[in-house]
Amino acid sequence: MIRSLGLVMLIVVPVWFLAQPPKSDEQSLRVVDPSSDVRSFTSAAPGVPVPGALPAGWRATNSTLEPGALRIGWVTPTGQYAEYDASTRPAAEFLPGTTGNGSRVGTFEVGRVSWQQFSDADGHTSLVREVGGSSVVVGGLRETTTLEELRVLAAAVG
């Protein structure tokens, strides 16, 4: 019986050793370059404002281009998540799903541009701007960042 237990331990100890998590709690982020998606979206939907340069520390982690829609997500300098989402679909179709059926709670200026602030039942904040027949949302259902960081992103959208 001791020999059998010894054989089992010869298998269990190396597996246990190799299955240990890394010493760091922090996982590395996969940073992406959304510039090609932004260019494609701009050529397909001229006049829709897109994000420009952001302050140091903002890292783009995803970019999704679909016909008539662009979504870019960033990890902010504080380690939170912020998102830009634009669509050429009518606002009545696009906004409920993007803002979590949020209700309008106010309007404010970022730079010289007026944005509408929406809030959903879970407390997610969205900043919404309609340009022609298109809608731009900063924030949305996946955001975890502060309103101040959303304003920084809104300022970069212009």
Low-pLDDT windows of residues: none
Strand sequence of the main sheet, in spatial order? 1-2-3-7-6-5-4
Indicate the overall shape.
elongated
Beta-strand content bin: 25-35%
Cα end-to-end separation: 74 Å
Return Rg in Å.
Answer: 22 Å
User: Mind describing the biggest β-sheet?
Assistant: 7 strands, antiparallel
- Category by helix and strand content: alpha+beta
Mean pLDDT: 88
Order of helices and strands: HHEEEHEEEEH
The total count of strands amounts to: 7
Residue share in helix: 25-40%
Q: How many helices? A: 4
Q: Key features?
A:
158 residues; alpha+beta; seven-stranded antiparallel β-sheet; 4 helices
Report on this structure.
With 158 residues, the chain is an alpha+beta fold. Helices cover 30% and strands 32% of the residues. The termini are far apart. It is elongated, with a radius of gyration of 22 Å. It is built from four helices and seven strands, in the order ααβββαββββα.
